[in-house]
Amino acid sequence: MAVRLDGKALADRIKAQVREEAAALTRPPALAVVLAGDDPASQIYVRGKERDCAECGIQSRTHRLRCDEARRDLLPLIASLNQDPAVDGILVQLPLPEGLESRAVLQAIAPEKDVDCFHPLNVGRMALGEPGFRPCTPAGLLALLDAYAIPIRGRHCVILGRSNLVGRPLAQMLTARDGTVTLCHSRTEGLADLTRQADILVCAVGQAGLVTADMVREGAVVLDVAMNRTPEGRLTGDADFPAVEAKASFITPVPGGAGPMTRAMLMRNVLAAAKGGDAAC
Ligand code: GUN
After folding, report:
1. CA-CA-CA-CA torsion for 65, 138, 251, 255, nearest 10 degrees?
2. What pLDDT score was predicted for residue 12?
3. Which of 231, 228, 183, 232 is nearest to 210 (CA)?
């Protein structure tokens, strides 16, 4: 039976540390969150970020724009936040309403305030292994592995999902830590043969029940990043949790695993942005 990787407990410890470091600065760090449109999940995520900021002694200001306002005002708003010395970090909640191209919007954020690490400059720095921001979900997974002293070096890390948010950056970050990475996606052939080779299996697809116990090697570490809702309204990852838990050595619960860690890493990035320089690494 697997040990559950307690992301909530570790996130609480990290947030307490952020709070302590933030309190030592001459002024509290400040995060600007931009919420465009009325996506219900985004409203919940943004409220969670506001709560995290309050817990960490970080000032947060949420700019809410209706869809029609966003088309006109979003880029000028980002330009003014870029210029505002009282704003350390800027986060534009995704997805954006129809008609707004996320690529152009994310590129408009000043790289030194890009606490999501979505700007091409920061993505490039990460790809080169240079100091700088790291994207929150992959960074949270690495912090969780480290906290439980789970080694990465030389181990076969199989990632399901090649999103810009998780799969692609995580592949680079695990490679930088000397993991041997296989990045799988919707066109991968022989998926189960690959997942069965994984020492560390990362599920980041968004399809409940995708990963069954027969796809997991006895003793593997399973990191489940997905957040799916069952028809009954329950939150679940990609893995068939009870069956996979029985076979794995470590597993992230959903909820309470990767989710809280992502949020804690955002707080760390905001603190790093407030400190400036290369502190974000
Ligand atoms: N929407 C879902 N996840 C994220 C995230 O990590 N950052 C932003 N900006 N939007 C999201």
Report:
1. -10
2. 98
3. 228
Q: Which atom of ligand 1 lies closest to the CA of 91?
A: 9
* Annotated catalytic residue within 52, 88, 114, 116: 116
pLDDT digits (tens, 9 = 90+) for 96-118: 999 999 999 999 999 999 999 99
Q: Look-up: residue for tokens 């919707």?
A: 186
Q: Is the distance from the beta carbon of residue 92 to the nearest atom of ligand 1 less than 6 Å?
A: yes
Distance from the alpha carbon of residue 94 to the mean position of ligand 1, in angstroms: 5
What residues does 200 pair with on adjacent strands? Answer: 157, 221
What's the pLDDT tens digit per position in 155-167?
Answer: 999 999 999 999 9
d(CA 259, CA 31): 19
257-to-10, 205, 253 alpha-carbon distances in Å: 9, 16, 5
Residue 75 C-beta-side C-alpha neighbours within 13 Å? 10
Distance CA 221, CA 239 (A): 12
Map residue 185 onto helix, strand or coil.
Answer: coil
The pLDDT assigned to 281 comes to 45
Is the beta carbon of 136 within 6 A of some atom in ligand 1?
A: yes
User: The sheet that has 30-36: what strands, in order across it?
Assistant: 59-65, 30-36, 89-92
For the full predicted model, state whether its pTM sits above 0.85.
yes
- Spacing, Cα 263 to ligand 1 middle (Å): 10
| Ligand 1 near 93 CB (within 6 A) | yes
- CA atoms of 48 and 137, how far apart (whole Å): 15
- pLDDT digit string (tens) for 23-46? 999 999 999 999 999 999 999 999
Q: How far is the CA of 214 from the centre of ligand 1 (A)?
A: 32
For Cα atoms 101, 103, 108, give the angle at the middle one, nearest 5 degrees. 105
* pLDDT at position 277 over 70: no
